[in-house]
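So, could you explain the following?
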Amino acid sequence: MFRQGNQVHPVCLLIYVLLCQLLFLLTAGSCNTHSLMYTYTAFSKSVGLPGFYTFTAMGLLDDIIIDYYDSKSQKKVPKQDCMNKALPQPYWVEGTKARQAKQKWFKRNIKIMMARMKQNSSDIHVLQWRHGCEAEKQPGNSSLQFTRGIDMYSYDGKDFISFDATNKVWVASSVVAEQTKRKWDNEELIHYTISYLQNNCIQWLSAFVKCRKKQLVQAAPPKVLMFAKNSKVKKNVVLTCLATGFLPKYIELKIKNEGRVLNGADRVVSTGPLPNGDDTFQRRDDIEIFRDDLATYTCEVSHSESNLHINSTWGKFDLIGWVSGGLLMLAVLMLAVLVLLVFLCKRRNCVFINIVFSRQQDSSEDVL
C-alpha cells in the first residue's frame, strides 16, 4: 500500500514532509526556551503539485517562519516585518547566494543517494536536512544559554544521519549512511559543526529574539474570551477560556475551581497552542460542569512576552445566558417568520388569511 516495489510511494513522501512541518509547529516547549531552526527539503524531480518545489528552505524562530526560499523564486526573503526592517539588504543578497549554493548541493547529493541505493529516476525521492539550536533564557537578564543543538538528515522519510554533540561523532541510522559517517567524522568538520551550533547559531538566535521583542511591543495585545455553552448532557454546561493572538506560542492558561488549579484528571480539555493565520497562536481550554454548580470558576492567563496577565471569573449569568438567550432568539425568529408570512399572504390575497379574518369578523357578530 505504501510502497511501489522497494520504493516509497510519492504520496507518502508528501504526507511525511507535511507532517514534519506540522510537527515543528506543534512541538511543545517552555516560555523560557527559544529555538532557531533551519529546514531544507529537496525532491529528486518535480512533484507536480502547487506549493511543492524541487527545493525549499526556511528559517524558523520559535517555530514561526522568519525567512523563506524556494527553487521557483530563487530568492531568500523575510517573512516577518522585524526581519525586513532590522537586517540590511546585503544580508538578503548573501543569503540568496548561500541558498542557491545549497540547492545545487542538494541536487548533487540526492543523485549520489539514489545511485548508492540503486534507485531509478522514475520514482520521486526526498532528502531533508534540519539543523539549529535551542537556548534557555537566564533568570535576571535576557541572555540566552545554549541547551541543545540539532543537525540531522533524513532520506525518503527515514532518519539517515545525525550529529551527537555530546560524544562529538556522527551517528549513522542505516548501513548506507556508514559511508557518510566515515567521511564526516573528521576533526575539522566536527569542530565546525559544534562551533556553529553553540556559538554562531546562538548569536543569531539572540539577535532575532530581540528583533521580535521590538515587534511585539508595537503589536496588538492578545485577547482572552470566556463563555459557557450547552453540553450534550442537558444537566451540564461547558466552560471555555480562549486566548488568541499571542506570540510566541508559549502561554500559561489555567482554569481554577475555588482557587484550585484543574487539570486533565478534572476533565479539563486543552487544544494546546495552535497556529492562527497571521503567525500568532491561540489556545482553548474547556471543562464540563453541572449546570447547578455554585462553585466559583476562574480563568487565569499569563503571557510574559506581551505582559498579559488576566484573572477573571465566570459569572452565573454566563451559565444560563446560553439557555435563556437561545430560547429568546428562537422566539424572535418564529415571530419574524410569522409576520413575514402574514405580510406575503396579505399582498397575494392569501386564502388562509382571508378565512381567518372572516371568521374573526363573523364571531364578533354572532351571539350563541
